[in-house]
Amino acid sequence: MSSSRIVPNHLSDSSSLPEGAGTQAKAFLDAACEIDRRTSPDASKDPSPGSQAGAVEAWARASGTLISDAEIDVLPLVSNSTSEHEVFFRPWESRAVKRTRAGVYGQIPFPFNGKLDRKNAKPSEYLRRMALQILFIDSDLKLEGVTISDKPSIVLFEPPGQPSFVISQTWFERTDRVTTEEIEELMKDSGFEFVPKSYFGWFRKEDRMIVVDAKPDNFIKTAVGLVPIDLQMAQFTPEEMKAAGLV
């Protein structure tokens, strides 16, 4: 994990990015801001991920980032067993291509009843999570676009036709299994403290960075060292730190 870069709470827009931040982080953040802008006032009060579905599709059409499901489905399927993404392989670029499951946009850290918990992310929250992963872990994540599938949503009572984000990152060859001790060493070396009674949670006081789901499944041991994959991240406000019992 990279050294700390202080980022304003909840990344308001791309002007708040630290100097030298890459265009890949900016692409995720600009999309998040535009989706928030296109979300209707009534929908903005709805905590469910599906409340932003119309805004995601409208942004994708306006930005020219709407892509066909067939363009992804033709790729070799690597994994269909995680709750957040289907994972494919694009061999000519040696990249993993990930598509969020219809109607679901992963999870993010969340303070609840004095503890560090998780909640289902809205689309714009998912995009900000990816921007944070680029900034703080130097991940080579790219926002490729949005697909609209006629497959049923995996969320009960949501209609088919929910948008999915498509992202990609460098493909890493696994050299060995990852141990919890190696993760602990990496996180502590990066200035994080473990959060007891959380879902593999860690926090860093200096910038209020929060990481959950930091388990062996989400790291790959490679020839260049331990590489974090798909960590659930957020930057808490001072009030959220208190609400999570972290101060």
Q: What does the model show?
A:
This protein is α+β, with helices and mostly antiparallel strands and 247 residues long. The chain has helices at 23-38, 41-44, 53-63, 69-73, 123-137, 180-189, 238-243, and strands at residues 77-79, 85-90, 95-100, 107-112, 115-120, 141-148, 163-170, 193-195, 201-204, 209-212, 219-222, 225-228, 232-235. The chain has one domain (14-243). The protein is built from 7 helices and 13 strands. The strands form 4 sheets. The chain has a 5-stranded antiparallel β-sheet. Strands 8-9-10-13 form a 4-stranded antiparallel β-sheet. Strands 4-5 form a two-stranded antiparallel sheet. Helix 1 (23-38) crosses helix 3 (53-63). The longest helix has 16 residues, at 23-38. It is globular. The model is unreliable at 2-9 (pLDDT under 50).
Structural domain count:
1
Query: Major sheet, described briefly?
Result: 5 strands, antiparallel
Distance between the termini: 23 Å
Q: What structural class is derived from the secondary structure elements?
A: alpha+beta
Q: How big a fraction of the residues is strand?
A: 25-35%
Average pLDDT number: 87
The neighbouring-strand order within the major sheet is 1-2-3-7-6
User: What's the helix count?
Assistant: 7
Order of helical and strand elements: HHHHEEEEEHEEHEEEEEEH
Proportion of residues in helical segments: 25-40%
* Low-pLDDT sequence parts: 2-9
